[in-house]
Amino acid sequence: MNWGKTILLFLIITLLATFSLFSLLAVFQNPKSSNSHNNQPAIDPWITQTIPSGGSIFSVLANQGLPLKEIALLAFSFGDYIDVTTIQPGDTLKILLSEDKQHISKMMFIQEKTTRHHFTVTGDSLSYTLEALPVQKRKRILDGALQGTLDATLLNMGLSPKDKQAINNGLEGEINFSRDARNGDGFRIYLEEHLFEGSVLPGHKIFYVEYRGERTGNHELFRYQDKEENSVLNGLYNKEGKSNSTSGVGFPLSVIHVVSSFGKRIDPFYGRWANHQGVDYRARYGTPVYAVANGTVSCAGYQGGWGNEIRIKHPSGLSSQYAHLASMSVRSGQTVRKGQIIGRVGSTGRSTGAHLHFGLLKGKGFINPTNLKMVGAEKLNDTQMVEFKRQQEVIKAEMQALLNPQPVVASSSVKPGKQNKHKS
Ligand SMILES: [Zn+2]
Prior knowledge:
By secondary structure, the protein is α+β, with helices and mostly antiparallel strands. The chain has helices at 2-36, 57-62, 68-81, 150-156, 161-172, 177-180, 382-403, and strands at 47-50, 92-97, 104-110, 115-122, 125-132, 136-145, 186-196, 199-200, 205-213, 217-224, 235-238, 258-260, 263-266, 273-276, 279-282, 288-290, 295-302, 308-313, 318-325, 327-328, 335-336, 341-344, 355-362, 365-367.
């Protein structure tokens, strides 16, 4: 296995070396071609660099032959705007040099296809803007019939594993699938997909799920959308606002934005590959951190690279870990309830910016915390229910409009659309 890795690494290095050689040749040939074709559009003045495996922003900048002082300033300031723990091989850095080629005047960093991070360098300072490229949104109704398992049926319809999971989790609490589901049972899904440059981006926003079978009866789920775009409450609930999930595990933050997931990644400090033993959530300094389940605090203190760290031992035998905290409001030995505030987000220890590192331990080993089925709320509260009822009506009206498009006719007698129920 180690040999396989070594060979793979060797191949990658060889490939990179070949590419560098080619790009070098291209640089030497460019002046000629630009002179001979004066009427051609100018060559792209941006230098485009892909972060190589094992590379870093620093190494990419150093390859441009720029003064070390400038590189240090830029590489350092970069971390004020980009969570450097998210930098992956394949991310793109575009650089625009000054006239004398001694300084960088602009940089553009591209991670997700749909966002651009722009940096402008003026003397010793850096200004930053984030540009979100417009994505096209398309709402669709998918009608299907059960063939084998629900999982397989949904995947066959082109839904992503994550979408499939959300639908499955929602229906599981409503329907006893192994006992009552039958091939040919019908279902309807109303979702929104995002398109960028003609292709569908992964992950849908699911607004509505209906399942109907002779033995199962009819079941409907609706999406609840909180004011916060990434609220942990967002998701599918039944009409009464129950989330159908009884895992008993909550989220450590009320708004979730994953910036680095479990597994391999580039070490933000040294640019080497390292194993990331948890999930990083982006959050502002001081954001409350919650215990994900009932338990006993097994440690709460400063632990080297973890900074201020809390570990909670749960009755399930698992322990949860919360690191880089600005402050802690629990002590070792104390019992905590699920949802209790245990501390505040910070950047203590070996951290490059405010974030929560959330880990999960089984015995002494770290396991992937996304294996936990975390639930924002088992039941929406009264205030949320008022809003949820309103959203259900909007969803139903939108679906009705999609199913029965009204002809655009100047008519005074618009009849209510006939309920073409279960037409599939
Ligand atoms: Zn982390």
